[in-house]
Write a structure and sequence with these properties.
20 strands; TIM Barrel; 8-stranded parallel beta sheet; alpha/beta; 2 domains; single chain
Length: 401
């Protein structure tokens, strides 16, 4: 039986606050952290946290890649990406796919799904399929009408390894798809939509009660009657108390004031942080080639932009370069909330959405997915990351000569 004690820490329970000065881990699970339990351990490994903050690991619901890696490139790329994200304090991620859902690519999709079982970095409880039942296109997202038979084929191809699917309420035939997703315990996420308020409410009633990269690719309806404010999916989602939302919190895709507006409508338990990261996320500023065939220019102020005068979208955003620890840093600066409520947006809130009861918490019996943080004026940096009690990132060791 393996035993580890992380002591001299400020252990933060999301939504609650600092709860302990030590955490005891046995066989990958958290034992209730108290002095009596810790003192009773027989020769455990001990780590001195130096008074630093320890939190549950971050959970990313929506990410396409990290660094030079696209999850969709192949099984080894997916596994490499899951190793890389641990450097940023992410211990659980849904690899998000857009281009592997047509029948001619099912073999590739199956190989990606099987790779989840071989992950040795962040855990991946399933795939997030962004499409194909969406109303507005995105990078590589096919658009097809709602089709329960295609959904079942995707489920079978992945061996049941689908945890979330992004859909649009206005797509024909979408309501039976949403209902089937719910029966399969797959989380339907609303996105890429021009839906009316009525269409959105019908989708919510069918079971689609989360919106991903909210506000982005949720265009404002056209004003058809001057003086009458049009409403659509955004207003319906904000007004519906059963709905939660997530944001790309990089300050580029969504203005902080828009996040504060959603906070006023939803409360902190209704908000979540995602990255929607792609190739380039976490890399230094500069120019990089991409698998899409065009270079991108990364800057802190403008994110990743297509940098090709011959490209029709030269200068446009090319995905997100956000990492989860940077997103939490931003929210801590933007929102006037207790820190434990902000940490919940990247830990316990997404865990609750996905039904992952053993993640996003320091409660007794939870998975020991943990991060020890270095806090500086620049923001948060993951000093050590554990997944299931195993150290998968050691910033001190990586920095050693």
């Amino acid at each position: 039986m393996s035993n580890l004690v992380i002591e001299n820490i400020r252990a933060l329970e999301p939504g609650v606050g600092i709860i302990a000065e030590a955490v005891h881990i046995t066989d990958g699970k958290i034992v209730k952290p108290d002095a009596e339990t810790v003192q009773g351990i027989s020769e455990p490994e001990r780590i001195d946290g130096g008074g630093r903050l320890l939190t549950p690991g971050l959970i990313d619901l929506h990410a396409h890649g990290i660094g030079p890696v696209s999850y969709e490139a192949g099984p080894e790329a997916l596994r490499e990406g899951l190793r890389r994200v641990t450097r940023h304090g992410t211990t659980c991620v849904l690899p998000t796919l857009t281009g592997s859902m047509s029948p001619e690519r099912f073999d590739h999709l199956a190989s990606l799904a099987e790779a989840l079982d071989e992950a040795d970095g962040a855990s991946a409880p399933g795939l997030h399929l962004e499409g194909p039942f969406v109303g507005l296109p995105g990078a590589m997202i096919p658009i097809v009408p709602g089709d329960v038979e295609l959904l079942e084929a995707l489920w079978d191809t992945t061996g049941g390894r689908v945890k979330a699917m992004s859909v649009s309420p206005e797509v024909s035939g979408i309501l039976p798809v949403i209902e089937r997703l719910c029966r399969r315990d797959i989380v339907p996420m609303i996105t890429h939509t021009r839906a009316t308020a009525e269409e959105t409410l019908e989708a919510i009633e069918a079971g689609a009660r989360h919106a991903t990269h909210f506000y982005d690719v949720f265009p404002v309806p056209d004003e058809t009657d001057p003086g009458v404010r049009p409403v659509g999916a955004v207003e319906a989602i904000l007004a519906e108390t059963r709905c939660t939302v997530d944001f790309i919190c990089d300050g580029i895709h969504v203005a902080p004031v828009a996040i504060r507006a959603a906070l006023a409508a939803k409360g902190y338990r209704g908000l979540m942080l995602i990255t929607d990261a792609n190739v380039g996320a976490g890399l230094p500023e500069g120019m990089y080639d991409t698998p899409a065939g065009y270079p991108i220019k990364i800057s802190r102020e403008r994110g990743a932009r297509i940098h090709d005068p011959k490209h029709p979208l030269d200068g446009a955003l090319a995905g997100s370069t956000l990492t989860m620890e940077r997103g939490i840093t931003n929210l801590l600066r933007w929102l006037d909330l207790p820190p434990e409520q902000i940490w919940a947006m990247g830990t316990s809130n997404p865990a609750r959405l996905l039904g992952l009861e053993a993640k996003g918490t320091l409660r007794e019996g939870a998975d020991a997915d943990l991060v020890l943080w270095e806090e500086t004026d620049e923001g948060l940096s993951a000093l050590k990351t554990w997944v299931g009690g195993r150290c998968v990132h050691d910033g001190q060791a990586d920095a050693a000569p």
